From TrEMBL:
<comment type="function">
    <text>Could methylate the ribose at the nucleotide 34 wobble position in tRNA.</text>
</comment>
<dbReference type="GO" id="GO:0005737">
    <property type="term" value="C:cytoplasm"/>
</dbReference>
<feature type="binding site">
    <location>
        <position position="133"/>
    </location>
    <ligand>
        <name>S-adenosyl-L-methionine</name>
    </ligand>
</feature>
<keyword id="KW-0808">Transferase</keyword>
<dbReference type="GO" id="GO:0002130">
    <property type="term" value="P:wobble position ribose methylation"/>
</dbReference>
<keyword id="KW-0489">Methyltransferase</keyword>
<keyword id="KW-0949">S-adenosyl-L-methionine</keyword>
<feature type="binding site">
    <location>
        <position position="105"/>
    </location>
    <ligand>
        <name>S-adenosyl-L-methionine</name>
    </ligand>
</feature>
<dbReference type="GO" id="GO:0008175">
    <property type="term" value="F:tRNA methyltransferase activity"/>
</dbReference>
<dbReference type="GO" id="GO:0008757">
    <property type="term" value="F:S-adenosylmethionine-dependent methyltransferase activity"/>
</dbReference>
<dbReference type="InterPro" id="IPR029028">
    <property type="entry name" value="Alpha/beta_knot_MTases"/>
</dbReference>
<feature type="binding site">
    <location>
        <position position="126"/>
    </location>
    <ligand>
        <name>S-adenosyl-L-methionine</name>
    </ligand>
</feature>
<dbReference type="Pfam" id="PF00588">
    <property type="entry name" value="SpoU_methylase"/>
</dbReference>
<keyword id="KW-0819">tRNA processing</keyword>
<dbReference type="GO" id="GO:0003723">
    <property type="term" value="F:RNA binding"/>
</dbReference>
<dbReference type="InterPro" id="IPR029026">
    <property type="entry name" value="tRNA_m1G_MTases_N"/>
</dbReference>
<protein>
    <recommendedName>
        <fullName>Putative tRNA (cytidine(34)-2'-O)-methyltransferase</fullName>
        <ecNumber>2.1.1.207</ecNumber>
    </recommendedName>
</protein>
Length: 160
């Protein structure tokens, strides 16, 4: 499985859509506080439809708490990839493995520069011709399904 991590997400429908995608593909979703919404918000549940209660979801008080748990559960054998417009390599050039985490920043700010600069080898970008960035849910879908493809990615056939 691939872990999808949303760092301080702000827009409930994006998080709901990403939750639905994680549920449909059998991958966990991690939310890092502070959240820009309440988890009981109608728009979050509407986007996630009735799948939200079945989603493998973890909510963390801050990134440090997530990172400690991540490192304590075999983190040395797994990688975190930071999706950012500041990444030097395309997301398809990363070498994903099952158990890795894909970290996405808040919609209006992206990931903090200090977080990305800690490990520039793990900073990846989704190539774009125009514009500043894609919608968070779109970016998460692009990233997750590329990682699954590299890992033998037939979600329907049960290979991932």
């Amino acid at each position: 499985m691939i872990h999808v991590v949303l760092f301080e997400p702000e827009i409930p429908p994006n998080t709901g859509n990403i939750g639905r995608m994680c549920w449909a593909s059998g991958n966990p979703l991690h939310l890092i506080k502070p959240l820009g919404f309440d988890l009981s918000e109608r728009s979050l549940k509407r986007a996630g439809l009735d799948y939200w209660p079945e989603l493998e979801l973890a909510v963390w008080e801050n990134f440090e708490e997530f990172e400690q748990a991540w490192n304590g559960e075999g983190g040395a054998d797994r990688s975190m990839y930071y999706f950012t417009t500041r990444g030097k390599k395309a997301h398809w050039d990363a070498d994903y493995a099952l158990g890795d985490a894909l970290v996405f920043g808040p919609e209006t700010r992206g990931l903090p520069a200090a977080m990305v600069e800690e490990d520039l080898d793990r900073a990846v970008r989704i190539p774009m011709t125009n514009g500043r960035s894609l919608n968070l849910a779109t970016s998460a879908g692009i990233g997750l399904y590329e990682a699954l493809r590299q890992c033998g990615g037939d979600v329907d056939g049960g290979q991932v």
